[in-house]
Amino acid sequence: MKKQTKVVLGLFLTIGVVGVAAYFIRQARLLKSICVKAGNIDWEGALLEAVQVYTQGQSITEFSLPLNLTLINNSNSEVTIKKVDMDLYAEGDLIGQVSTDFEQILGKKSETILNVDFDFTQDANLLALGAAELLGSLDFTIRGTITAEASVFETIEITYLSTFNAAGLISSEKSGGDCK
Known about the structure:
By secondary structure, the protein is α+β, with helices and mostly antiparallel strands. 28% of the residues lie in helices and 44% in strands.
């Protein structure tokens, strides 16, 4: 092979490797620019209604607790939310779960509301929840992940943790990403 051909091939190979590396670095930075915050959490009425149905011996599987999450994309690229997987705990006991597979696009430099519903688990102790709620001392914790994708090659799991009471007063919230 001629020396000029080797130089040209080497140059193209070097430019390609540098371009691919720059792409992955940019995508990694992009995915760290996503922030998740809780929207409104007003479950008091829904909890009391579910407890009443539960005490009458009926199924609570048709009841759910809505959660609105605010997703903020601070990057200059679109991101696709692929999956939400969260657990809801009341006083440390698992009472509900969200597990969805859907796609929602977050535009660049945008803020979007993501609506999900916690479905009650079969073994949720709603009698204890009802008593604690009437006394005003029921604390909840949400733990989970949101899967975001910027390209076929770049996927990130955004962790979410929030502790609050049934009236919706958030006492602490920690999430993945930069919420500035």
